[in-house]
Specification:
- The complex is a heterotrimer of chains A (497), B (333) and C (174).
- Chain A has 497 residues and is mainly α.
- Chain A has 21 helices and two strands.
- Chain A has one domain.
- Chain A is 76% helix and 1% strand.
- In chain A, α3 (39-50) packs parallel to α16, α5 crosses α10 (249-264) and α7 (164-178) crosses α18.
- Chain B folds into two domains: 28-124 and 254-316, 3-Layer(aba) Sandwich (D-Maltodextrin-Binding Protein, domain 2), CATH 3.40.190.150; 127-250 and 318-332, Periplasmic binding protein-like II (D-Maltodextrin-Binding Protein, domain 2).
- Chain B is built from twelve helices and eleven strands.
- Chain B has helices at 3-25, 44-60, 75-83, 96-104, 140-149, 163-175, 187-195, 206-211, 226-231, 266-280, 283-291, 304-332; strands at residues 34-37, 66-68, 90-95, 115-125, 127-130, 155-157, 180-182, 202-204, 217-221, 253-261, 295-296.
- In chain B, α2 links the parallel β1 and β2 (66-68).
- Chain C is mainly alpha-helical and 174 residues long.
- Chain C folds into two domains: 3-86; 89-159, no CATH class.
- The chains are: A mainly alpha (497), B alpha/beta (333), C mainly alpha (174).
- At the A-C interface, α7, β2, α8, α16 and α17 of A face α2, α4, α6, α7 and α8 of C.
Chain lengths: 497, 333, 174
């Protein structure tokens, strides 16, 4: 069980990797603090940089951004009532009232300590469960992989709540984009229109940078207020807030467990976990009426849950190669580009890399605690950043990052096009996450489907004769039926349950 | 001619002279040189090209990044490099697939002699491997016997027009064996399916062999060269069983030859060549590369045309093997 | 804003998806047929999966369009339109224009990057973006543009070894 950790020590304790985790956590905090930019955006902006690094250092950087970014939003939520990321929306419920009562210092301290501790608990779950799940997946062959990839795709559509059909549309679009390029089964090119840049398909990084970052720049410009200066109080939290959080250990452990469980389920993510943990903390509290008035337990529940989600979401991503949300889909894409295919193989052959990733994740949470507490004044200063300076800088990062992928201007055109597409889709409430997941899972689903048929000699019973594949496919069928059944029935069923 | 246009003409002329002047007197290279690498980054092959690039960079005094530009079996990388100016700042990492195979199948329209060669870089030889727990066949002759008895019933990793597949199809054709080729993006993924039991055998390269020694048993190497036996820890070659695979020399191997644009000035090519020759003779670089299982081929630029064209002729004969296999598999099922 | 114009605007996304599906069907019925990879059993048929996906897109896009048109009668003013009405029209419009200008600037940058080289094109892009976002102090604007451009060039070109375009003037300090 701990074998990967020992093997990873060597890879992780290098100057590069330790520095990457340190820098990543700080960058993550900063990006989380800045309104509009979340961990996903941070990961996307720094993604191209990692391809020039050692694998563990590169993944460490990205995961640290994920960790830092999942917490940073709380600082701006508490101080200026603007959640830096949607993840911090629930933290606002008690964080802001607490700050208004003159306890901003404690509120920020609690948020950071709870995040770090929740993250560590999520990490422990990750370290125990991921290898077990991976070992189970060792038996998986193309039919099982296809069935599982299909589950990943379906669940994403399922959880895009009100916008199920919009989610399916963007998901299908992402899947279609992934078919561009060379088709190894037919031995020829698809949808390349004689354009050299398309021969290798659309680069996922060019696509996500455009879809999320460039579209965000457009949204920000359209919303105006280029030189607005938010009014922020100065605070300096103390390290002792960790003790306060630890004294509420029941809430901490429960919320972290909820966070890592929901994180491991495809589609749920940090926002859902923080609200769920908050609701459960309130309903089990002796003084539920105090929630929303600035109570410590409110902050502890949301922040520990959304950081534990990070650890949870890495479980299916690393061990099965099934990302649960857009952020882990991007992380999985990065891992593949770095030459490591997530799944049981990763755990068997590259234990050192897995261990290095685990260690990077754990260390990021430790760094988060100290850096968060000590450097909060610095991040507070960053909330004062004006858009007019921030947006050109973000644009520059996008352009340089995407260009550096293959020293190619073609990718820049791809980025720009997806920037415009992303903007339109966001404006009309089409979820973007299914598109990224479609892009990542598309090739896996299609190639394993067709590969299964090649292996079986075009015999479809291959999918049903294998018990694991058949089980997963049956679950998929249930999901599809559930999706198709009208809302009224669903509500009735849920009520009865 | 108006005064204005005369003036602008004058400025252009001066600028042209100035530019030409700097070009003539400048020491090549005065900025980064890039190697356009045709496969995905992070692979063993990418690492090997980076080792050579680093050695050359030290000698040239400029960085030499290896830019991974995967797509369409390497054709994208070649097109990208062809679009760059012929000034010696762009090197083609000339792998067999884009250089020789793609034109053979009409996917590209260049030939060996459309480029100026530097030194040849490396080769990596393929081998036929099975799971160590396999009991239906345990050596090459019993493998042949089993496949003969069960035509089209077994499956292996054979990816379309890729080199390892062409070689394996050729070998199967020579031995009159039929097995079903299953495409995988890379051999590592095929490795997983050999273990889960849906593949019966695997064509491996040194990188995959080194990473999976515990889960692989080499039946036979697909090259008769001594160095290849060493790469696979003294595995048998077909000749040891008195079997002719119908393909020999560099043809059954993956290899790459560093090339530049045909119109690159010779003085620049000479500078690059000097640096590359020194690099591949550097004991440190050699040791690094050998540790990956890749082998330095050490052909000089003068030998390029002959070696490349003869490999092309041999592979031309393997081209039919792919179509032969396709039909044989169909007939067997 | 009239209710008709709202409808046409929210039709953009479904129409876009219909166009994507149309391109897929056009290709699978021309290019892929010419290459002889659009038929046969599923594993060798390159057109099968894209056509399934495109069909899904068509069905859902059409149902979206039907929904939008049907809703326009019962619910003439969308939330979106209310926002538009309450906001100050000229600034709203000015901001929309600026966001389009920003996209055009990036497009011009991509065009200029190879010929002019990184070290000329990048400060120009940054300066024009700063100006677009109301940075009025010329010294600050120039200083930031050149400074940011050089620092990023050092990080990407120097530390990460990316080959930044040198352009016709062959400027390549890192």
């Amino acid at each position: 069980m701990f074998e990967p950790l020992f093997q990873g020590l060597q890879l992780f304790f290098t100057m590069d990797a330790v520095f990457a985790v340190l820098a990543g956590t700080l960058l993550g905090l900063l990006i989380g603090v800045l309104p509009g930019l979340g961990p996903l955006m941070g990961i996307i902006l720094l993604l191209p940089v990692t391809f020039h690094m050692e694998p563990v250092a590169g993944m460490g950087l990205l995961i640290a951004i994920y960790v830092g970014g999942s917490c940073g939003g709380a600082i701006s939520a508490i101080l200026v009532r603007i959640p830096g990321t949607p993840l911090a929306a629930a933290t606002l419920l008690d964080g802001y009232p607490m700050a208004q009562k003159g306890r901003a210092k404690e509120a920020v301290g609690i948020a950071i300590s709870a995040s770090a501790l929740g993250g560590v608990l999520g990490g422990i779950v990750l370290i125990f469960l991921a290898p077990l799940l991976a070992r189970f997946a060792l038996e998986f062959a193309p039919p099982e992989t296809f069935a599982l990839a299909l589950t990943g795709l379906l669940v994403i559509a399922l959880v895009s709540n009100e916008a199920t059909s919009k989610g399916i549309m963007t998901g299908a679009f992402g899947l279609l984009i992934s078919t561009i390029g060379y088709d190894q089964f037919a031995n020829d090119l698809r949808f390349t229109f004689g354009v050299n840049g398309l021969l290798g398909g659309i680069h996922i990084v060019a696509m996500v940078v455009g879809l999320f970052a460039i579209s965000e720049v457009i949204v920000q410009i359209k919303s105006g207020f280029f030189s607005r200066n938010p009014d922020v109080p100065w605070v300096r939290p103390s390290l002792s807030s960790a003790l306060l959080v630890l004294s509420r250990w029941v809430n901490l452990v429960r919320s972290s467990a909820i966070g890592s469980f929901l994180g491991a389920l495809p589609g749920a993510g940090g926002v859902v976990s923080s609200f769920t943990a908050y609701a459960i903390a309130r309903s089990t509290s002796k003084t539920p009426e105090k929630f929303g008035t600035g109570i410590e337990d409110g902050i502890i529940a949301t922040e520990s849950a959304n950081n534990a989600t990070v650890g949870g979401s890495l479980i299916p991503t690393l061990s099965l190669g099934i990302p649960g949300d857009a952020t882990s889909a991007v992380l999985m894409g990065a891992l593949i580009i770095l030459g490591f295919f997530p799944g049981p193989n990763l755990f068997e052959q590259h234990q050192d890399v897995v261990g290095g990733i685990f260690l990077a994740y754990m260390s990021a949470n430790v760094v988060l605690f100290f850096a968060g507490i000590l450097l909060t004044p610095l991040f507070v200063a960053c909330i004062k950043f004006k858009k007019q300076y921030l947006l050109p800088f973000i644009t520059l990062l996008c352009v340089l990052g995407v260009f550096s992928l293959e020293s190619s201007t073609f990718h820049l055109w791809v980025m720009l096009a997806f920037g415009a597409i992303g903007y339109v889709l966001r404006r009309y409430d089409y979820p973007l996450a299914p598109m990224v997941i479609g892009m990542v899972l598309g090739p896996i689903a299609e190639s394993n489907f067709r590969r299964s048929l090649v292996i079986s000699g075009n015999d479809y019973s291959f999918f049903i004769d294998r018990p694991i594949a058949a089980t997963i496919l049956a679950i998929n069928l249930v999901i599809i039926v559930w999706m198709l059944c009208p809302k009224v029935w669903k509500n009735r069923l849920l009520l009865r349950a | 001619m108006t005064l204005k246009s005369k003036f602008s003409l004058g400025v252009t002329a001066i600028a042209a002279v100035a530019l030409a002047g700097t070009a003539a007197f400048a020491d090549f290279p005065e900025r980064k040189i890039q190697n356009i690498f045709p496969w995905a980054p992070g692979t063993v092959a990418h690492g090997v090209s980076q080792m050579i690039a680093e050695g050359m960079s030290k000698r040239l005094g400029q960085p030499l990044p290896v830019v991974a530009t995967p797509g369409a079996g390497g054709v994208k990388a070649f097109n990208t490099a062809l679009a760059a100016p012929a000034d010696g700042y762009t090197i083609f990492d000339g792998y067999v697939a884009p250089l020789v195979i793609s034109p053979m199948f009409g996917r590209a329209d260049w030939g060996c002699d459309d480029f100026k060669p530097l030194w040849s870089a490396t080769s990596n030889a393929f081998a036929i491997a099975i799971s160590p727990t396999e009991d239906r066949f345990t050596d090459f002759p019993s493998f042949i016997a089993y496949l003969k008895a069960n035509p089209g019933k077994t499956a292996y990793n054979g990816n379309g027009l890729s080199l390892p597949h062409m070689v394996s199809a050729k070998v199967l054709q020579s031995l009159d064996l039929v097995s079903r080729p299953v495409p995988y993006d890379d051999i590592e993924l095929g490795m997983k399916d050999l273990r889960s039991g849906v593949l019966d055998w695997l064509v491996v390269n040194p990188g995959v062999y080194n990473a999976n020694k515990d889960n692989l048993k080499i039946l036979v190497t697909l090259s008769e060269l001594e160095s290849v036996q060493r790469t696979y820890d003294g595995a048998d070659k077909a000749q040891d069983f008195g079997i002719d695979l119908g393909i020999s020399g560099l043809a059954p191997m993956g290899w790459n030859w560093w090339l530049v644009h045909k119109d690159t000035p010779q003085d620049r090519v000479d500078i690059l060549n000097e640096a590359m020759e020194a690099t591949i003779n550097d004991p440190e670089v050699r040791a690094q590369i050998e540790a990956t299982g890749f082998v330095l081929t050490e052909y000089s630029p003068d030998q390029y045309s002959e070696v490349c064209n003869s490999a092309r002729e041999q592979l031309e004969s393997a081209k039919d093997a792919i179509t032969w296999e396709e039909e044989a598999v169909k007939a067997a099922n | 804003m009239t209710k008709n114009s709202i409808n046409t605007e929210s039709l953009i996304a479904p129409v876009f998806f219909l166009a994507v599906a149309a391109i897929v069907f056009w290709q699978t019925n021309t290019d892929l047929v010419e290459k002889d990879i659009a038929s046969g059993s599923m594993q060798y048929n390159a057109a099968f999966v894209p056509e399934v996906l495109a069909t899904v897109l068509v069905i859902l896009a059409v149902s979206q369009i039907v929904q939008i048109i049907r809703n326009s009668g019962t619910n003439p003013v969308s939330i979106d339109a209310q926002d538009d009405a309450s906001a100050e029209a000229p600034t709203e419009r000015g901001l929309a224009v600026r966001s389009v200008v920003a996209l055009v600037l990036i497009a011009l940058y991509i065009l200029a990057l190879r010929p002019l080289g990184y070290h000329i094109a990048t400060p120009m892009l940054l300066a024009s973006l700063f100006a677009l976002l109301n940075v009025r102090n010329p010294l600050l604007l120039l200083g930031l543009s050149i400074g940011l451009s050089l620092v990023s060039a050092y990080v990407f070109g120097g530390l990460l070894n990316v080959v930044l375009p040198a352009g016709v003037f062959e400027i390549a300090p890192f």
